[in-house]
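Here is one chain, start to finish.
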Amino acid sequence: MLEICRELDLKDVVLVAHSVSSMIGVLAVNKQPEMFDKLVMVGPSPRYINDGDYVGGFGESDILELLESLESNYLGWSSAMAAGIMGNPDRPELGRELEASFCRSDPKIARDFARITFMADNRGDLEQVKVPTLVLQCRNDAIAPIAVGEYVRDAVPTSSYVLLNATGHCPHLSMPKETAEAIAEFVGG
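Its structure:
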């Protein structure tokens, strides 16, 4: 990401990142804060595994089982997980769209990426963020529960927080207008 920004000679970047990309954004902002003006994190999670008092949403055995399922049957995993991640059972087309996106991915790359994502712990990186940051959290997110969004809000010293009236892990797909309005208010403010 930083190489692309440097190559394009970007300055005052407003980075909008979703899910694990939020943590990639945190790492980029921490490495070169002068390049960034603001950071927007949609459904961020610095650690998916519960750890002591920290609620990440999953036990370690849950994550290991998920990774094993992904390893043994990627297409089956994609089919089973997409609707739950999307979290909008009244709109099954959204789950199908996410499933199709998963199925377009190279299974080996997806497996490796999932392992790194779900086993990572970026909690210590949050307190180093120095640019204004917006944390967008969904009310009912099976991947990044409210406790995670609140943790990120409290850990990033420059953060503001919006609890969206959205369900699922992809509010930019399920409630694009509300998501875009929250981002626009933060960026314009």
